[in-house]
Amino acid sequence: MAQWDGLLQGSADAGAGEAAVAAVSARGLSKRFGDLLAVRDVSFTVAPGEVFAFLGPNGAGKSTTINMLCTLLLPSGGAAAVAGFDVARQPAAVRRHIGLVFQDQTLDDQLTAEENLRFHAVLYHVPAERVAERIGRVLELVALGDRRRDLVSTFSGGMARRLEIARAMLHTPAVLFLDEPTVGLDPQTRALVWEDVLRMRDEEGVTIFLTTHYMDEAEYAQRIAIIDHGGIVALDGPDALKHSVGEDTVELATADDAVAERRLRAAGWQVRRGDGAVTVVTSDGEAQVARLIGVAALPVHGVHVHRPTLDDVFLHYTGRQIREEHGERQLSGRVRAFHARRR
Amino acid sequence: MTVPLRAGPALVADQSPSLGEELRTVGMVWERELIRFERTRTRILSSFIQPILFLFVLGYGMSTLTPTVNGFDFKKFVFPGIVAMTVVTTAIFSAISIVWDREFGFLREMLVAPVSRGALVVGKCLGGATIATVQGTIMLALAPLIGVRLTLPLVFAVIGCELLMALTLTAFGVAVASRIQRMEGFQVVMQLLLFPMLFLSGALFPLSGLPTWLTVITRVNPLTYAVDPLRHVIQDAQNLTPQAAARFPVGVSLFGTTLPIGAELGIVSALAVVFLALALTGFRRTG
User: Fold this and answer.
1) Would you say residue A334 lies in a domain?
2) pLDDT at B8
3) Pairs across A and B, CB distance < 8 A
4) Average pLDDT of chain B?
């Protein structure tokens, strides 16, 4: 009980006093499975209230890392702390202070939304007198208050996922771990899920640690660690990462590209002659478009501004493109089909 | 940003759950089993079909072969065995929920929670035992149809026997289920174990005067010691004449002496402890 009170205070006073304790920190974290080094010498720090993403292809070591941080796997080397507790030496304390949303659904669909939450509240030691209030609160945060008495088997995939996020927040964790939170969801539902996640961060002050292989999902993070072959190859904010691989390019298709090239170069721009267009390399390309057209002083047929994407970043650091892996939901597909048969 | 790896709260001891938190977990896991049971009405009804068939088809059929002795017949003899059968089947199959939970991911929600595996196992076993006892007790409603006399103290004694039997068999089921990954596997193992154990337990025939090989098997079968106390308390309340009691004997003789009912209950309790320990080790290894 005491630590529950302390925890509540802790999240309310974020930024004061003990704010120096990182939400998550890892030093030289490694995991070996036989001959395979699944995670090698990973170090990073996540500040309280941050949204931090592990971006990488399937099999890069994302889930292994998250499992070590959640005390589901013992590290082979290095150390990690979550909410100030050592993952190897204080696993019970770590588990009390984290919320977990796994890639595959872990709800009991024979129970109602409320019953699922009540079960979780007891297993995570939410004081009895606070259970009803917390259930109401988290359901309201994910806008499922009107479905609380419905069986989870009647929920869509997106609703079930939002309920899982609500459940993971029930015991006011310091860190919310999301393992591939929107795999298998359509883009619209994905956006809804993210609205809920960010609302949790804003209103409950929770730190978000997620793994993903979706570039657009990583964009929600304040900092991204790109992980490949078990190691972090780059770690920075999305914009800084994009800047690190190159500047924006502005393509101008003009009435006379040769003249345009000469005039732009004379004005001091870095220019390349492309196929049916001149390409100008510059920072903040969109803001420069009007000036470039003014300098060229020619009729312009087309303008295209390209800013490096996380795809470019990933390609730059790993030499490969992240592939959308097909069939990764096959297992849960099978489980669902099995379930449908049971009814 | 440099942040100390371990600071502040890291200096305190690990926060293992308190006894109160563990008991609350046991209660919640138990309650979930009951909620799920109550929600599957068709399964509740279908689980009565088999014992009722056994009771009426086997009971009436065999009654023509074994004559009625002073008003006591085979139907009345087999009735406690059928009640035990209902309890045992329900108890063992309630453990199947662990395999379901594994397939549907809910097991993970339980295993990552900051609670001990022991609290989860005990909650599961008590839940399954409660359900099995309820099913067995509902079967008592058929007693008047067969002519078995029930009194309130008798019903309480029966419930006590059922609870102990149910707890032992649920723990047995959980011990098996926690070591099995797939639904099909559990069903195969259970069919292979359950029916021989039921048929060779004395649920359906008296245990005295059997050929030696059958005597040995029935005495090794743990179910024998769970079924007999139930028959004992029911038959004792039926005012059998000495001739009827000789024709339909109760009790398990071991090495020439008839075991007192307390010894039988002691054996079943010891088995409950063993199976609970096996269930716990099985659950500990589960990832």
Assistant:
1) no
2) 40
3) 117
4) 87
